């Protein structure tokens, strides 16, 4: 066990935005909340997954809703607390630790704020190794952990406890309740034993996020190329370099959907790249080639600062570098591809790993 | 305590359709389910409210959704059972009896089917003395009983437990979940103590429904005018006699909304009457006068058979008699008018009791 203080949070926020692949909500809000909580309640204990007892109860905490709504409706922290209290009552058991459900933006950081507030440790792991837009898109689900009992709580004092036959029904009902409850709520979701966490989680996500943040910050102060350093750390690929020339973004059914067009610069001069997103970036391609596809990670970095840009942060004229990162092996199984591969999102492609796509493009 | 058998159910179904003021779903479905349950499990014990112990737990059972959906998606009985089991777990108490939430159509009869199935008595009362379209439109709510914990269960095996700050939020969230869960669900709602039932319920609704059914059936076999007999029983008013010449009905936001136009016959020849409904009939008027308005009861009877017609049963060409019945005094309080009066439904009228409106029309 080690402790996370304010410097660690600053680095984690950068890593969370990068692994968030454009989605997961603005990490800035989560960072501010986590820092405030640390200032008030002290550093947050971080537990390695291997330190969990098999029968410990671990409950991920996550915000659900459209990122654009989250930016306007900042959570107070009471919602997360209310969701945990309600779930403890349902389970009739004490929750031992919380955990991020995803390695993306606000949802990497909100569990840290909650942990500080209620004096619980955070488990160093998550259920995606990236961000995804739907509740069942987690490795917990791939490994058969039940999505429910799931508690949704809003800032007004309403909560609901869902018990569904599968994760898809949980997603459907929770999504519609979220819309009615004001567009974003806090969830206490996928309650698990320590044993289930060990089997189904992605390990050491917070430590990786912290390393990503530190790598980018240190590269800059050491005069190194921060993008190259990050690609080395993550076994990633530089997909495309250019300038955003068009961005189309709509809130639809609780999601932010759209497409960005990037006009090539440097070695990509004369080409165009396109990114399709639904909260997160799902497909990156040029007019002739596919560059990267979900569940592999597509991230947009500011070419100058090497800092990640969220879908809502993309602006006309920004100079950006697209990078692709191999996802966790759990996502490359047939079930992983079924749950979060290109066809689930309506793209008529067979999944091809980013490393294969980029060998091919290099020929 | 007395027992309800098949003959009583036949009469109750007629009374329920009449007090249902056009809404509450097709009583036929509820009747079939109650009769099947009695055939399988025996007669249903009916408890007078005065027979309840003060600390007995009583939980009304009701279907939520658009009546037109209910007709196509008949409940199996498992949903109601599942909602009760889930609520007992939440309350951590044994439920002693069930009760209808409304005196309208299917929701008067479904609690009888549930009671037979799980061997609980039914309380002779309800929360409306009629039917209304929204969850907070009950005398329980007027008297400060909490709508939640409220359980919604569907036929697939999903359930959700709502805890909201008030009845309006319960209505809003439950309505949207109902739509996603297939358009109709079973609720276990307004859990109450015997003491709360005594304070807030409308007394002897099932007995009244049974009397209405018996009055109509006996009048016919005795050659009496069944409509006149019913009006005497209920202190009601004959509002208008005519033929349905237009009917406009739409499913909108989980409700069936619309208007019917009736061309006058007999003493109303030359006039037109109009009924506005949202699941239930809300306003009856002619070109020059208002005849009756919510929360008073507006019911459409077949002029020939004296049997009540639901909003979904209204057909072009049917000869009908509109009757108006004073609602329970609980609805005529300022809070009752606020919750279920004309302005709540968007009609710019002050509430005037049906007996006043019909004095005036008689001048």
TrEMBL record, chains A, B:
Native organism taxonomy: Bacteria, Bacillati, Bacillota, Bacilli, Bacillales
Domain S-Me-THD-like C-terminal stretches: 167-354
Protein name, UniProt field: DUF917 domain-containing protein
Domain S-Me-THD N-terminal: 8-163
Pfam families cross-referenced by the UniProt entry: S-Me-THD_C (PF20906), S-Me-THD_N (PF06032)
Superkingdom of source: Bacteria
């Amino acid at each position: 066990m080690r402790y996370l203080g304010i410097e660690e949070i600053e680095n984690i926020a950068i890593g969370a935005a990068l692994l968030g692949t454009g989605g997961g909500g603005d990490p800035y809000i989560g960072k501010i909340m986590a820092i405030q909580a640390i200032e008030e309640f002290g550093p947050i204990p971080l537990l390695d997954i291997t330190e969990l007892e098999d029968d410990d109860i671990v409950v991920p905490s996550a915000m659900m809703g459209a990122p654009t709504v989250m930016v306007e409706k900042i959570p107070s922290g009471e919602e997360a607390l209310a969701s945990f209290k309600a779930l403890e009552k349902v389970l009739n058991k004490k929750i031992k630790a919380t955990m991020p459900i995803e390695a993306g933006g606000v949802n990497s950081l909100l569990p840290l704020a909650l942990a500080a507030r209620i004096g619980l440790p955070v488990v160093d792991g998550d259920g995606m190794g990236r961000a995804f837009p739907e509740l069942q898109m987690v490795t917990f689900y791939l490994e058969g952990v039940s999505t429910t009992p799931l508690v949704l709580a809003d800032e007004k004092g309403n909560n609901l406890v869902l018990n569904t036959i599968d994760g898809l029904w949980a997603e459907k009902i929770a999504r519609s309740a979220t819309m009615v409850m004001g567009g974003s709520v806090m969830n206490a979701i996928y309650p698990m034993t320590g044993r289930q966490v060990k089997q189904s989680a992605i390990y050491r996500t917070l430590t990786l996020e912290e390393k990503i943040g530190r790598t980018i910050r240190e590269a800059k102060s050491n005069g190194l190329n921060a993008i190259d350093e990050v690609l080395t750390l993550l076994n990633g690929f530089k997909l495309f370099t250019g300038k955003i020339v068009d961005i189309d973004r709509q809130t639809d059914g609780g999601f932010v959907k759209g497409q960005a067009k990037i006009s090539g610069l440097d070695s990509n001069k004369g080409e165009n790249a396109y990114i399709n997103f639904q909260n997160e970036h799902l497909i990156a391609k040029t007019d002739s080639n596919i560059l990267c596809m979900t569940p592999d990670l597509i991230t947009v970095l500011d070419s100058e600062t090497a800092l990640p840009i969220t879908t809502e942060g993309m602006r006309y004229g920004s100079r950006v570098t697209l990078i692709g990162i191999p996802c966790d092996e759990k996502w490359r199984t047939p079930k992983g591809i079924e749950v979060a591969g290109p066809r689930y999102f309506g793209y008529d492609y067979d999944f091809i790993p980013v490393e294969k796509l980029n060998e091919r493009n290099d020929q």
